[in-house]
Automatic annotation (TrEMBL), chains A, B:
Species: Streptomyces tsukubensis (strain DSM 42081 / NBRC 108919 / NRRL 18488 / 9993)
InterPro entries per the UniProt record, alphabetical: Isoprenoid_synthase_dom_sf, Polyprenyl_synt, Polyprenyl_synt_CS
UniProt KW Transferase keyword: yes
Family, per entry: Belongs to the FPP/GGPP synthase family.
Protein's name according to its UniProt entry: Polyprenyl synthetase
Length: 343, 343
């Protein structure tokens, strides 16, 4: 029951964030020259490939919602952070465009990825332009925290790049050669960093000091890692009807997700079985056997416990930034929401 | 004789710029996590692919030299712009990394391009990181003009993206379908914009007002277009011993460079001949015939006159920013240098 209330609260916060940032995002993307604008609006789900209006989804707006909720939890005005929240969302979408090119992913938000529709050059170029749009938004934002936010976002982008680079490098190595520690560091950089940055930017806009901002960042990072762990579990055991992906999609793609790497490092008979399966082609039967091996090797339990542990750490960090946690209810709702979304 | 003096002056300015920005660039690139750092230092010519030190060239440092000279011409302190000049150089190198991926260029500064050595994903990711490093440099620059410079650079990156996008789109169209006007607009966005931005950033750091900054930008743009026209002439008639590329390399690649597009649009018999040659494979004999056709169709003369005209406009714009042109000698030397470099 309490989960349902929290879920409803989170959905309202996400809707509020979408409404707050969409006008700025539409203006920013609309300012791009024609051919780039078309790719950008397609990627956001606002236009079809032929330029006709689409009712697609621009994503859940988790990061803008975190920027707004973090600012509000520290006494800031959520309306004053709309530009910075839109900038963070542009950064997120810049990484999606480039990651889809790099990973050769065919689908994003239930539609063909931009590079499959417009070609790799356009997807690279429009990703670059989105990152520049984020900085332009911040450069024109008269708020006194805009400069510090721009620096923080630049730092975060470098970390996102490092995470994506590590992810690619892992794909080249044999599965049993990648340690769980390396894998967690990669997930922290690739997913945790931007959620942390979103919270830190909200804190900066509320006039927070260094310690509060760092604690907000840590909250977002830990929640982000919990989110990634749950996402990895869904990639193996998720309901295809809800995820839009076939069951075991990550296993079929030989993805070294966190539960898989934990299982491989368990020293169990199931780990050896999994390693063998990961060396060959993944038929539907092999995918089912691999999922079972991850479970028996303890990868599923580890990921669930690790996710719970990260959420506990997230709440601890949040309590350092906002001693009266009652004021941080929205942030907690959002963190709960992202880590429970498809279970 | 005066050309030699100017050339010597320009070389001294470029050396000064290299010395001013290299420490900041090395610190910035050195702060990247290991695998990204390696790609970045390779791209700059400072390391070999195996990580050993290299004595390669990091480029001519034209853009940092323009930032410094523009600041100085308006009474600014060239030492105070070192960080901003390094940021502009990082932006330039971000575009090189991505453009080489997009254009599938095998060679840059006489070495294999980064994507051919480290793969496309690493080249995309490290390009992204370089753009973020540029913004981080500006975010940490205490100079009061740093914020305005960041906004100007963001605007410029969007224009660079538009230019690269147009360049790609032209490649898909039949040669006679691309108008000279479109081609000039593309070259202005792709080459002129960043030279203009470099000069504008220098002006901002000297505390210049809007009109002076705009005139400085226009100076850099016009000089950049002259540079591109000369570069296009070199791509057809350049001395392979000096350019490091085979003669007529641009023709062999069916490149729609400015002299080619001017020739194709001339309505002459030579234009028809050139269009026919551009439809087929370019043997060395065909390249020679195409070069001759561009010449007979007036493309060579047009480009030379246009370059001279752009330089005249550049000087006119410069005189609006710096009424006593004696104070702008360094900028004139640099503009002369880049437009005369290989003739």
């Amino acid at each position: 029951m309490s989960e349902t209330v929290e879920g409803r609260e989170a959905l309202a916060l996400l809707e509020r964030a979408r409404a707050a940032v969409d006008p700025g995002l539409r203006t920013a993307l609309g300012s791009l020259p024609g051919p780039m604008r078309r790719v950008a609006l397609y990627h956001f789900g606002w236009e079809n490939a032929d330029g006709s209006p689409a009712a697609g989804s621009a994503g859940k707006a988790i990061r803008p919602a975190l920027v707004m909720a973090a600012a509000e939890a520290l006494g800031g005005d959520p309306a004053a952070v709309a530009g910075a929240a839109a900038a963070v969302e542009l950064v997120h979408n810049f990484t999606l465009l480039h990651d889809d090119v790099i990973d050769e992913d065919p689908t994003r938000r239930h539609r063909p990825t931009a590079w499959t529709v417009f070609g790799t050059p356009d997807a690279i170029i429009v990703g670059d332009a989105m990152l520049a749009l984020a900085y332009r938004l911040l450069a024109h934002d008269p708020h006194p925290a805009a400069g510090a936010a721009a620096g923080r976002i630049a730092e975060c982008v470098i970390e996102l790049c490092a995470g994506q680079q590590a992810d690619c490098a892992f794909e080249e190595r044999p599965p049993e050669d990648v340690s769980l520690e390396e894998c967690l560091a990669m997930a922290t950089a690739k997913t945790g960093a931007l959620l942390g940055c979103a919270c830190a930017v909200g804190a900066l806009y509320a006039g927070a000091g260094e310690a509060e901002t760092a604690a907000m960042d840590a909250f977002g990072r830990e929640a982000g890692l919990a989110f990634q762990l749950i996402d990895d579990l869904i990639g193996i055991w998720g309901d295809p009807g809800r995820t839009g992906k076939p069951a075991g999609a990550d296993l079929a793609a030989h993805k070294k997700s966190l539960p898989v790497v934990a299982a491989l490092g368990s020293g169990t008979a199931a780990a050896a079985e999994l390693a063998l399966l990961y060396r060959g082609h993944m038929s539907p039967g092999a995918v089912a056997r691999a999922a079972d091996a991850v479970d028996r090797a303890g990868g599923r339990d580890w990921a669930q416990l690790q996710a719970a542990d990260r959420m506990a750490r997230a709440v601890h960090e949040l309590s350092r930034a906002v001693p009266d946690l009652a004021a941080a209810g929205d942030l907690l709702s959002l963190a709960e929401f992202v880590t429970r979304r498809s279970r």
